[in-house]
Amino acid sequence: MSTGTTGVSRYRNLVLFLALAAFWGSAFVAISAGLEHFPPVLFAALRYDIAGVIMLVYAAAVLEDGAWLPRGREEWAVVAVGAVLLIAAYHAFLFVGQQHTTAAAAAILVSLSPVLTTGFARVLVPSDALSLIGIVGVLLGLVGVAIISQPDPSNLLSTDFVAKLLVFCAAASFALGSVLTRRIDASLPIETMEAWSMIGGALVMHGISLAMGEPIDPSAWTHPEALGALAYLSLIASALGFLLYFDLLDRLGAVEINMVSYVAPIFATIVGWLYLGEVVDATTVVGFGFIVAGFALVKRQALREEFGSLNRLYSNSRE
Asked: Where are the transmembrane segments (predicted)?
Protein backbone atom coordinates (compact mmCIF):
# COMPACT_ATOMS: atom_id res chain seq x y z
CA MET A 1 0.00 0.00 0.00
CA SER A 2 1.35 3.42 -0.89
CA THR A 3 2.00 6.11 1.68
CA GLY A 4 -0.82 8.23 0.27
CA THR A 5 -3.31 5.39 0.43
CA THR A 6 -2.26 4.55 3.98
CA GLY A 7 -2.70 8.18 5.01
CA VAL A 8 -6.16 8.40 3.45
CA SER A 9 -7.21 5.16 5.15
CA ARG A 10 -5.90 6.40 8.49
CA TYR A 11 -7.78 9.70 8.21
CA ARG A 12 -10.91 7.84 7.07
CA ASN A 13 -10.78 5.60 10.14
CA LEU A 14 -10.25 8.60 12.41
CA VAL A 15 -13.22 10.46 10.93
CA LEU A 16 -15.48 7.41 11.23
CA PHE A 17 -14.27 6.74 14.78
CA LEU A 18 -15.08 10.29 15.85
CA ALA A 19 -18.44 10.10 14.06
CA LEU A 20 -19.30 6.90 15.93
CA ALA A 21 -18.26 8.46 19.25
CA ALA A 22 -20.40 11.51 18.46
CA PHE A 23 -23.42 9.39 17.49
CA TRP A 24 -23.20 7.19 20.59
CA GLY A 25 -22.27 10.01 22.94
CA SER A 26 -25.11 12.28 21.83
CA ALA A 27 -27.47 9.28 22.06
CA PHE A 28 -27.42 9.70 25.84
CA VAL A 29 -28.71 13.25 25.36
CA ALA A 30 -31.43 11.99 22.99
CA ILE A 31 -32.44 9.47 25.67
CA SER A 32 -32.74 12.23 28.29
CA ALA A 33 -34.80 14.35 25.88
CA GLY A 34 -37.08 11.48 24.89
CA LEU A 35 -37.71 10.44 28.49
CA GLU A 36 -39.66 13.67 28.91
CA HIS A 37 -42.31 12.18 26.60
CA PHE A 38 -42.02 8.36 26.71
CA PRO A 39 -42.14 5.81 29.54
CA PRO A 40 -38.53 4.53 29.78
CA VAL A 41 -38.78 0.83 28.90
CA LEU A 42 -41.40 1.41 26.20
CA PHE A 43 -39.15 4.13 24.75
CA ALA A 44 -36.26 1.66 24.52
CA ALA A 45 -38.54 -0.99 22.98
CA LEU A 46 -39.83 1.39 20.29
CA ARG A 47 -36.25 2.36 19.47
CA TYR A 48 -35.34 -1.24 18.72
CA ASP A 49 -38.59 -2.04 16.92
CA ILE A 50 -37.38 0.40 14.28
CA ALA A 51 -33.63 -0.31 14.46
CA GLY A 52 -34.17 -4.09 14.43
CA VAL A 53 -36.21 -4.03 11.23
CA ILE A 54 -33.61 -1.79 9.56
CA MET A 55 -30.74 -4.06 10.61
CA LEU A 56 -32.62 -7.17 9.44
CA VAL A 57 -33.18 -5.62 6.01
CA TYR A 58 -29.50 -4.70 5.88
CA ALA A 59 -28.40 -8.21 6.88
CA ALA A 60 -30.66 -9.77 4.23
CA ALA A 61 -29.21 -7.41 1.61
CA VAL A 62 -25.48 -7.93 2.32
CA LEU A 63 -25.31 -11.57 3.42
CA GLU A 64 -25.43 -14.49 1.02
CA ASP A 65 -26.87 -18.02 1.18
CA GLY A 66 -29.57 -17.12 3.67
CA ALA A 67 -27.02 -16.19 6.37
CA TRP A 68 -29.40 -13.47 7.60
CA LEU A 69 -31.46 -16.18 9.34
CA PRO A 70 -29.96 -17.98 12.38
CA ARG A 71 -29.88 -21.77 12.18
CA GLY A 72 -29.32 -24.38 14.85
CA ARG A 73 -29.27 -24.27 18.63
CA GLU A 74 -25.94 -22.42 18.99
CA GLU A 75 -26.86 -19.58 16.65
CA TRP A 76 -30.23 -19.03 18.29
CA ALA A 77 -28.52 -19.21 21.71
CA VAL A 78 -26.27 -16.30 20.66
CA VAL A 79 -29.34 -14.36 19.56
CA ALA A 80 -31.08 -15.11 22.87
CA VAL A 81 -28.12 -13.84 24.90
CA GLY A 82 -27.91 -10.75 22.73
CA ALA A 83 -31.64 -10.08 23.00
CA VAL A 84 -31.86 -10.55 26.77
CA LEU A 85 -28.56 -9.01 27.95
CA LEU A 86 -27.12 -6.79 25.21
CA ILE A 87 -30.42 -5.22 24.21
CA ALA A 88 -33.23 -5.73 26.75
CA ALA A 89 -31.41 -5.70 30.11
CA TYR A 90 -28.87 -3.08 29.04
CA HIS A 91 -31.42 -0.62 27.68
CA ALA A 92 -34.11 -1.23 30.30
CA PHE A 93 -31.61 -0.49 33.10
CA LEU A 94 -30.13 2.44 31.18
CA PHE A 95 -33.38 4.15 30.23
CA VAL A 96 -34.93 3.74 33.70
CA GLY A 97 -31.75 4.91 35.40
CA GLN A 98 -31.19 7.87 33.13
CA GLN A 99 -34.48 9.42 34.22
CA HIS A 100 -32.66 10.70 37.31
CA THR A 101 -29.08 11.31 36.22
CA THR A 102 -27.33 13.34 33.54
CA ALA A 103 -26.49 12.15 30.05
CA ALA A 104 -22.77 12.67 30.74
CA ALA A 105 -22.81 10.67 33.99
CA ALA A 106 -24.68 7.83 32.25
CA ALA A 107 -22.19 7.81 29.35
CA ILE A 108 -19.25 7.69 31.76
CA LEU A 109 -20.74 4.84 33.80
CA VAL A 110 -21.43 2.88 30.61
CA SER A 111 -17.79 3.41 29.62
CA LEU A 112 -16.95 0.92 32.38
CA SER A 113 -18.23 -1.88 30.12
CA PRO A 114 -14.83 -2.77 28.56
CA VAL A 115 -13.30 -3.13 32.05
CA LEU A 116 -16.21 -5.28 33.25
CA THR A 117 -16.08 -7.33 30.06
CA THR A 118 -12.49 -8.29 30.79
CA GLY A 119 -13.36 -9.09 34.40
CA PHE A 120 -16.27 -11.34 33.40
CA ALA A 121 -14.11 -13.04 30.78
CA ARG A 122 -11.47 -13.90 33.36
CA VAL A 123 -14.08 -15.26 35.78
CA LEU A 124 -15.85 -17.38 33.15
CA VAL A 125 -12.59 -18.64 31.67
CA PRO A 126 -10.55 -19.79 34.71
CA SER A 127 -7.49 -20.61 32.60
CA ASP A 128 -7.23 -16.93 31.71
CA ALA A 129 -7.02 -15.47 35.20
CA LEU A 130 -6.37 -11.78 35.83
CA SER A 131 -2.89 -10.80 36.94
CA LEU A 132 -2.44 -8.66 40.05
CA ILE A 133 -2.17 -5.56 37.87
CA GLY A 134 -5.34 -6.55 36.02
CA ILE A 135 -7.20 -6.95 39.32
CA VAL A 136 -6.01 -3.48 40.33
CA GLY A 137 -7.36 -2.18 37.01
CA VAL A 138 -10.82 -3.64 37.64
CA LEU A 139 -10.81 -2.21 41.17
CA LEU A 140 -9.81 1.22 39.84
CA GLY A 141 -12.80 1.10 37.49
CA LEU A 142 -15.11 0.27 40.37
CA VAL A 143 -13.60 3.09 42.44
CA GLY A 144 -14.45 5.40 39.54
CA VAL A 145 -18.06 4.22 39.69
CA ALA A 146 -18.16 4.84 43.45
CA ILE A 147 -16.78 8.36 42.99
CA ILE A 148 -19.37 9.19 40.34
CA SER A 149 -22.32 7.67 42.22
CA GLN A 150 -21.23 9.13 45.61
CA PRO A 151 -23.19 6.65 47.76
CA ASP A 152 -24.43 7.93 51.10
CA PRO A 153 -24.32 5.02 53.62
CA SER A 154 -27.16 6.61 55.56
CA ASN A 155 -29.39 6.84 52.47
CA LEU A 156 -28.55 4.14 49.95
CA LEU A 157 -32.04 4.37 48.45
CA SER A 158 -31.66 7.99 47.34
CA THR A 159 -33.02 8.61 43.85
CA ASP A 160 -29.68 9.76 42.42
CA PHE A 161 -27.72 6.80 43.78
CA VAL A 162 -30.29 4.23 42.65
CA ALA A 163 -30.36 5.83 39.19
CA LYS A 164 -26.58 5.54 38.83
CA LEU A 165 -26.67 2.00 40.21
CA LEU A 166 -29.17 1.07 37.49
CA VAL A 167 -26.87 2.54 34.83
CA PHE A 168 -24.01 0.50 36.31
CA CYS A 169 -26.24 -2.60 36.03
CA ALA A 170 -26.75 -1.68 32.37
CA ALA A 171 -22.98 -1.65 31.82
CA ALA A 172 -22.63 -4.97 33.67
CA SER A 173 -25.41 -6.56 31.57
CA PHE A 174 -23.73 -5.49 28.35
CA ALA A 175 -20.33 -6.76 29.54
CA LEU A 176 -21.71 -10.14 30.62
CA GLY A 177 -23.65 -10.48 27.37
CA SER A 178 -20.51 -9.72 25.35
CA VAL A 179 -18.58 -12.47 27.13
CA LEU A 180 -21.36 -15.07 26.86
CA THR A 181 -21.83 -14.49 23.13
CA ARG A 182 -18.11 -15.17 22.65
CA ARG A 183 -18.27 -18.39 24.68
CA ILE A 184 -21.05 -19.89 22.57
CA ASP A 185 -19.58 -21.77 19.64
CA ALA A 186 -21.51 -20.25 16.73
CA SER A 187 -20.33 -18.72 13.46
CA LEU A 188 -23.25 -16.33 13.18
CA PRO A 189 -22.50 -13.16 11.17
CA ILE A 190 -22.47 -10.15 13.47
CA GLU A 191 -25.06 -8.36 11.29
CA THR A 192 -27.48 -11.27 11.75
CA MET A 193 -26.82 -11.48 15.48
CA GLU A 194 -27.40 -7.74 15.94
CA ALA A 195 -30.59 -7.68 13.83
CA TRP A 196 -32.31 -10.59 15.55
CA SER A 197 -31.04 -9.53 18.98
CA MET A 198 -32.56 -6.09 18.44
CA ILE A 199 -35.90 -7.57 17.41
CA GLY A 200 -35.90 -10.10 20.24
CA GLY A 201 -34.76 -7.50 22.76
CA ALA A 202 -37.54 -5.14 21.67
CA LEU A 203 -40.12 -7.89 22.26
CA VAL A 204 -38.68 -8.61 25.72
CA MET A 205 -38.82 -4.91 26.61
CA HIS A 206 -42.42 -4.64 25.41
CA GLY A 207 -43.21 -7.47 27.83
CA ILE A 208 -41.36 -5.72 30.66
CA SER A 209 -43.16 -2.46 29.87
CA LEU A 210 -46.55 -4.16 30.04
CA ALA A 211 -45.62 -5.92 33.29
CA MET A 212 -44.56 -2.58 34.80
CA GLY A 213 -47.86 -1.04 33.76
CA GLU A 214 -46.22 1.77 31.81
CA PRO A 215 -48.83 4.10 30.28
CA ILE A 216 -49.40 3.92 26.54
CA ASP A 217 -50.27 7.41 25.35
CA PRO A 218 -49.45 7.83 21.62
CA SER A 219 -50.63 11.44 21.76
CA ALA A 220 -47.54 12.31 23.84
CA TRP A 221 -45.27 10.73 21.25
CA THR A 222 -46.14 13.22 18.52
CA HIS A 223 -44.25 16.05 20.20
CA PRO A 224 -41.41 17.15 17.85
CA GLU A 225 -38.78 16.48 20.54
CA ALA A 226 -40.17 12.98 21.12
CA LEU A 227 -40.18 12.15 17.41
CA GLY A 228 -36.71 13.63 16.97
CA ALA A 229 -35.27 11.64 19.88
CA LEU A 230 -36.81 8.37 18.68
CA ALA A 231 -35.67 8.95 15.08
CA TYR A 232 -32.14 9.85 16.18
CA LEU A 233 -31.78 6.82 18.44
CA SER A 234 -33.27 4.39 15.91
CA LEU A 235 -31.74 5.64 12.67
CA ILE A 236 -28.50 7.37 13.67
CA ALA A 237 -27.29 5.92 16.98
CA SER A 238 -28.51 2.35 16.31
CA ALA A 239 -28.73 1.60 12.57
CA LEU A 240 -26.01 3.91 11.24
CA GLY A 241 -23.95 3.65 14.44
CA PHE A 242 -23.73 -0.14 14.28
CA LEU A 243 -22.86 -0.07 10.59
CA LEU A 244 -19.91 2.20 11.43
CA TYR A 245 -19.06 -0.09 14.33
CA PHE A 246 -18.95 -3.18 12.07
CA ASP A 247 -16.74 -1.36 9.56
CA LEU A 248 -14.31 -0.09 12.20
CA LEU A 249 -14.23 -3.42 14.05
CA ASP A 250 -12.82 -5.03 10.89
CA ARG A 251 -10.34 -2.21 10.29
CA LEU A 252 -9.18 -1.36 13.82
CA GLY A 253 -9.78 -4.44 15.91
CA ALA A 254 -11.49 -4.86 19.28
CA VAL A 255 -8.99 -2.89 21.37
CA GLU A 256 -9.13 0.33 19.38
CA ILE A 257 -12.89 0.22 18.84
CA ASN A 258 -13.35 -0.23 22.61
CA MET A 259 -11.80 3.20 23.02
CA VAL A 260 -14.98 4.74 21.58
CA SER A 261 -16.46 4.20 25.07
CA TYR A 262 -14.02 6.80 26.39
CA VAL A 263 -14.56 9.39 23.69
CA ALA A 264 -18.38 9.16 23.68
CA PRO A 265 -18.76 10.80 27.15
CA ILE A 266 -16.98 13.89 25.82
CA PHE A 267 -19.66 14.32 23.17
CA ALA A 268 -22.39 13.49 25.70
CA THR A 269 -21.04 16.22 27.98
CA ILE A 270 -20.82 18.85 25.23
CA VAL A 271 -24.22 18.10 23.69
CA GLY A 272 -25.84 17.73 27.12
CA TRP A 273 -24.52 21.15 28.11
CA LEU A 274 -25.61 22.79 24.84
CA TYR A 275 -29.06 21.18 24.54
CA LEU A 276 -30.10 20.30 28.09
CA GLY A 277 -28.01 22.73 30.12
CA GLU A 278 -26.41 19.85 32.05
CA VAL A 279 -23.17 20.55 33.90
CA VAL A 280 -20.56 17.94 34.81
CA ASP A 281 -19.08 18.32 38.29
CA ALA A 282 -15.47 17.69 39.28
CA THR A 283 -16.17 14.36 41.00
CA THR A 284 -17.64 12.95 37.78
CA VAL A 285 -14.49 13.93 35.88
CA VAL A 286 -12.29 12.33 38.56
CA GLY A 287 -14.39 9.15 38.47
CA PHE A 288 -14.02 9.01 34.69
CA GLY A 289 -10.25 9.27 35.13
CA PHE A 290 -10.26 6.22 37.42
CA ILE A 291 -12.31 4.23 34.89
CA VAL A 292 -9.92 5.10 32.05
CA ALA A 293 -6.91 4.22 34.23
CA GLY A 294 -8.55 0.89 35.08
CA PHE A 295 -9.10 0.14 31.40
CA ALA A 296 -5.45 0.99 30.63
CA LEU A 297 -4.21 -1.46 33.30
CA VAL A 298 -6.56 -4.28 32.32
CA LYS A 299 -5.77 -3.87 28.61
CA ARG A 300 -2.13 -2.83 29.02
CA GLN A 301 -0.67 -5.63 26.88
CA ALA A 302 -3.17 -5.17 24.06
CA LEU A 303 -2.69 -1.39 24.16
CA ARG A 304 1.10 -1.81 24.09
CA GLU A 305 0.84 -4.02 21.01
CA GLU A 306 -1.65 -1.67 19.38
CA PHE A 307 0.50 1.42 19.91
CA GLY A 308 3.55 -0.50 18.68
CA SER A 309 1.67 -1.39 15.51
CA LEU A 310 0.60 2.23 15.01
CA ASN A 311 4.19 3.42 15.52
CA ARG A 312 5.47 0.99 12.89
CA LEU A 313 2.72 2.08 10.50
CA TYR A 314 3.59 5.74 11.07
CA SER A 315 7.32 5.08 10.59
CA ASN A 316 6.71 3.19 7.35
CA SER A 317 4.45 5.94 6.02
CA ARG A 318 7.28 8.48 6.45
CA GLU A 319 9.85 6.41 4.57
From this structure: 42-63, 75-97, 103-125, 132-149, 161-181, 193-213, 225-245, 257-276, 282-298
